[in-house]
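Let us work through a complete example step by step.
Step 1: write down the sequence.
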Amino acid sequence: MRFSRQVLIELIIFSVFLIIFLRHSLLFIDSSRLYSTSIAHRLQTEALLHGHLSLSPQPFGYLNDFVWTGHGLQQNWGLGVPLLKLPFEWVSAQLGFGAFPDRLVLLFYLTVTVVLLNTALRTLLKTLGEGYSSEVRCLIRWYLIAWIFFSPAMAGLIQERINVYYETVLYACLYTYVMLSVFWIYMTSRKTRVFFVLCLLSGLACLIRQTLIFYGATTVAVASIFVYQEKRSLRIVMVGLCCFSTGILIELWSNYLRFGSILEFGCPFSGSPTINYLGGFGSLFAFAKEDFFGALKELLGDLFFNRSWQLHATRWRWGGGYYSPPFNLTHVVTLVLGFILFIWGLLSRFFNRIIYPKWTGLNSKCIYFSLSLGCISFGMIFKFYLHFTYISCRYLSDFSGAVNTVFIVLVLLIFHWLHFYRQRSQSILFLLFLFFVLLFYCTNYKFFQFDSQSHKKEIQSFLTDSKGIKKCVAAFNHSILKSTYLPDMSYCGQTYSTAGLKFQYTGWDIHKDCAVSAVTSAILPFKRCITLNYTIQNIKQIPKVQVRRDSVFFKLVDSQMSLEDTKLSQRVQMTEVFCSDSPVTNTVALYMIGWVTFDGFNQVHDRKLPIKLNWVKV
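Step 2: predict the structure and record it as tokens.
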């Protein structure tokens, strides 16, 4: 009977939590419009259902931020989210329902994350504070869950236009808390199979988002140290590391199949002229040359102080969004206290005896290992973004898992101290909860100021229904089929949007290089020679090809021509090899391939350049 009452209370609290969360977000702005017009994840899921990784074998007709390599057209947001959506799309296809709603998939994984967090915190609180009633522990648990999901960092993701950029980071945050929950479940249960699951999840984390490798590696390292201290079994640790390595190898293998290199994730070559300029013309490492303290001030300002100390160095900076910065003064105090305790624990040989008299064994290890996980993860991500060329508010949400882990540890410490010193009178508990309620409001009040209904009209164009999503996918497929051949002639001074290929002039001066009639780009291994195999539909128009890698033009060293069918179509098959004497320093490079026609062709506005690029290799 008591169990049923507790379950009912939990369901009521969860329902209220979910209503508030959805009321102040744009996840379900309209119950009839549950599909996103950002179709990158959907296209990748459909490709996986058909047994291949590339979205298309054609290098033309792609959308913004897509990349094309010799391995086909790829989206650069990773395979993790499409893999999470894959079971739903497969079942929906088998039942004949068509595309499964994107928002319902997200709601499912949100529910799974909350349930896992609730379960992990229940076991943790039961271990640390057995003297408290179940009602008090329930309040603590849901307070911490609300603190995570109503935070400014989370608000910046769910109160923006939730497209593929924000959705990917949101899935990454959810995955971080799933790993944290499994970590706590293992710390309290000490079951070996849970440790293996944790290691595998940590290795697969980079499939969701590459920066999750810092959380994954830290989680495995901290958990492995705990395993060895508890069981003195090197075999268990090695098996766990093998599970972790399996996840990493899956990501590296997919990188090789998609981009031709195990260390290439596709992100630097997203199709954006600005990003390609930063990556291709020497500015990529401009910000990396900034002094340490200057970069430190900028990152701290981006994280906590509304971008107060931005430098003038070249860096891709995207605006802060509706809520910026993602953290505030409360989180600064949290991190300072957390790092003080963490360093104190490292330096003091008598850590347990000094801070926690008579508190030994599993309890202290749960707390200190969790604190270590939060502090080390924060430090690793901070180091990564300190001189990173690209920065935005949504990127900084990567810190939320580490920051909130430290906060949760501090809250648990406070309640444990209160329990340990036997000061659990009703008045003290009431004042403590009142303090935390005020702290919650002062830190997260902006979350509740957001009214999704006021943004309903503005956001409608970014959500669609089942018919709309079919149109979006059909339009993409039509664009791919229609753009099999290079577009019409481009002219000097044409803008990017009217040139026929998205960002085709990236890396080319549209005034000085106007003889280049049509250009496409390819992401390939950084080599000195490149081979093109292309077909010309009209033998009377044989163009000259130019290949450019960054600022270096390649020289034509070999050319072969063969007539395929001169009677019917007069198609000419061309195979040409271009080489450069420039040194090879990188792993992957962005190549620009341009077709230059005979003199005066630029003035012929009604003619086309019917060339089909079959493949590119090195």
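Step 3: interpret the result. Residues 269-284, 351-362, 487-511, 598-607 have pLDDT under 50 and may be disordered.
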